[in-house]
Amino acid sequence: MSTPTKVTFPSFMLTISGELYAPAPGSPNRKNAAIVISHPMTGVKEQTSATHARALSAAGFWALTFDAGYQGESSGEPRGLEDPHQRVEDNKAAVTYLTTLKGKVDPERIGVLGICASGGYTSYAAQSDSRIKALATVSAACVGRMTRNGGVYESNNKESPEAIQGALKAAGEWRNAHANPDNTKAKSETPKMFSTDLSAVPKDAPSFFRSAAEYYGGERGQHPRSDQRVPLSSYDLMVSYDSFTYQHLIAPRPLLMIAGSDAETLHYSKDAVATAREPKELFVVEGKNHFDLYDDLEQSGPKLVDFFSKVLSA
Fold this sequence. Notes:
Blueprint: E1 5-11, E2 14-21, E3 34-38, H1 45-58, E4 62-66, H2 84-99, E5 110-115, H3 117-127, E6 134-138, H4 143-149, H5 161-177, H6 184-187, H7 207-216, H8 235-238, E7 255-260, H9 266-275, E8 280-285, H10 292-295, H11 300-312
Parallel strand pairs: 3-4, 3-5, 5-6, 6-7, 7-8
Antiparallel strand pairs: 1-2, 2-4
């Protein structure tokens, strides 16, 4: 398989770093269809996004991965900031970039794939961008509900006043501490969202955090630009954001949401598909958790290829 081409494109005032994968030689003719692939929170383009890009390019699609603004090789300060609206714009900007590839990509055949938090960001993008002709998600989650409800694994969909107040207090204190440019101590204390050392995860911790440490702390997902550090100022940006409120606006464009039966985040996909309109599908992979589907494409890979083939290149 050929090496992807390094590319850059603008998103708001930032420069986004991406990698463009060409259709593999001898692969099926997909009529110049292309897929934008958006990475998980705390991730970078070289991890699960690249795994999916290789599978889709091998099947004949153009595939574009990229680092979110403030993250990876993309520009923006503070590093690691998780800004939902920037993340949504990054996906729209990636679509815009693909439309400039005259003779390679058909602008009427562009789909988007979002993984984890990007399953939420790409949903939000597709709700208000008709250039996105099809949307698929893998292990989708909503960072807004995660923040308001007190955890990514909470499935009761009930806001927690304590969680909200705690998030806002931490964000406010973080902003105050960083108002002084000479406060080097504050700048060095960007916390990790979760540990990548499995031995440091308490045995009674939710399974999500153990699975996260297994993926990001091991050979499967470890990468030097993915350190899981998220500035606390991210949380007041996330608290009032919601990925799936207007999921029905994606129709009549097709929607596929994939999740593992054992994923702590399965409820996000179930709820989002329930509020969407046809054509829509929830594809549950039995026996898999949230992170399993980051690099185990045995079932989800063929499903994605079949979905995008039917809706973009038929």
